[in-house]
Structure formats: structure tokens, C-alpha cells
Amino acid sequence: MALLEIRDLHVRVEGLEIIHGLDLSVNAGEVHAIMGPNGSGKSTLSHVIAGKPGYEVTDGQILFKGEDLLEMDPEERAAKGVFLAFQYPVEIPGVTTMNFLRAALNAQRKARNQWELSTPEFLKRIREAAGWLNIPHDMLKRGFNVGFSGGEKKRNEILQMALFEPGLCILDEIDSGLDIDALRIVANGINGLRSPERAMVVITHYRRLLDHIEPDVVHVMSKGRVRKSGGKELAQELEAYGYAQFEDAA
Ligand code: ADP
Ligand code: MG
Ligand code: MG
Questions:
Q1: Does ipTM surpass 0.90 in this model?
Q2: Whose C-alpha lies nearest to ligand 1, atom 15?
Q3: pTM of the entire predicted model
Q4: What domains does the chain contain, in order, with CATH numbers?
């Protein structure tokens, strides 16, 4: 069985069905891109996988490592290794990035029945990850995301992802608002976290992120369903011909 297996998912938001029978299967070690126009339900899908409240699953299944995610609250899902990098990261004034990440990581480890990290061990890990993400030390001493540029916030998300060692990473428009340099840093960070045990779902509506992160599979999502799946050439096809051709398929 695939690492993430979604079958015939139907989701309602405020009584309105947004996802209409979506199937998606992602193997360990793979990176999948989900592309699609605004309003097709991509963020809804990522929220439902992570367990954000306010979404009603009326039918279907989401299995992660063979376990039913829909039975778990968001914290349990995170402890199992589901990580959602947010489209709009939160700011937390008054708590340094360093302290926030440490508290979050230790809470996560506790939920996984792992030991709390000692200060030197935590510092070693965060310095290593910050190093290859080009995150300067003084950024870690500032309030979490407070006054960070768009690029810094995204790098901070990837830093958090690196520390948490998730099994499934969902990146919802991590590329929005990034200039070319920031995009490259974020993409390098994501590439550095690819591993045989880990799957990634990268949601974007631009192809440019996929110039840096080579997906194994590209899915076109439109109007609440996966309309077509293929290799990375599908992203090129989309850029050339647009999304309209897929809307009446399936
Ligand atoms: P995408 O991420 O692909 O742009 P979304 O998942 O954000 O799409 O939205 C899909 C559809 O669901 C849109 O039509 C949007 O207006 C609707 N929707 C999303 N969230 C809510 C909400 N909280 N209340 C009402 N409608 C919503
Ligand atoms: Mg979205
Ligand atoms: Mg059904």
C-alpha cells in the first residue's frame, strides 16, 4: 500500500461540497505536485489531510501508513508524521523563533514517546538545519515570523519541517510571493529533505517551483477532483495549454 492513500474523498465546507470524489496515492520516497486553478480545492485537501477543523468529510478514506487519519485529531496526525507547511504562516510575537521551535519540537517528540532534546542536542540540530537553509542566527533570536519577509517565513517553515522529520510533507503554495533567489533556497531546502521514507505533496499553481523540485508525479486538480496525472511533462503541458481542457474530463 502507498504511504498516503486517499480514496473517493468527498468534503463539504459550510454545507457546500468542495471535493467531489478525489483519489490520490503517494508512495514513500516520491514527490507529487498538485497543480490547478484557484478555487479547485487544493488548500481544502491539504487542510483535510492535516485535520484542520471546519471541514466535513462526507465520504471516502485517507490512510497514512495504513492508518485512518480521519479518526485522529490534528495533533495525533502531526505526531504520526504529517506536516503541513502553511500558505499563510502565523506570527507569534514575544516568543523567539528558537524557543518556539524548541517547544514545538519537544511537544512533538513527547507525543511520539521520544525523549526531550537536551539544549546542546537541540542547538546542534537547529544550527545544522539553519545552515543549509541560509538562515542567519539572529533570525532565530527574533519573534517567531515577526517582521520576517515572505522568503524568511517560508525558510522558517522548511526549518520547522527539517526539525520535525515528518513522513509526509504537504507544502501548500510555499512558492507564493517568493523572488527567484528565495525560491531557489526554499526549493533546495525541500530537495534536501527528500528521502526514501518520506513523501512530499507540493501544491502550486505555477510551474516555476517545479523547475527546481523535480516531481515524480504531477496531478491536475480542478473543481474538486484529480482530473489527470502524469510525469513532469504534464506541468509543461499545463503551462502551454492551461487548465480549461481538464475541466470536463473524468
Ligand atoms: P484552492 O486552494 O485550490 O485555491 P480552496 O481549497 O482554497 O481552493 O477553495 C476551494 C473552494 O472552496 C473555493 O470555491 C472556496 O471559495 C471554497 N471554500 C474554501 N474554504 C471555505 C470556507 N471556509 N467557507 C466557504 N467556502 C470555502
Ligand atoms: Mg489554496
Ligand atoms: Mg462515494
A1: yes
A2: 39
A3: 0.93
A4: 4-246 (3.40.50.300)
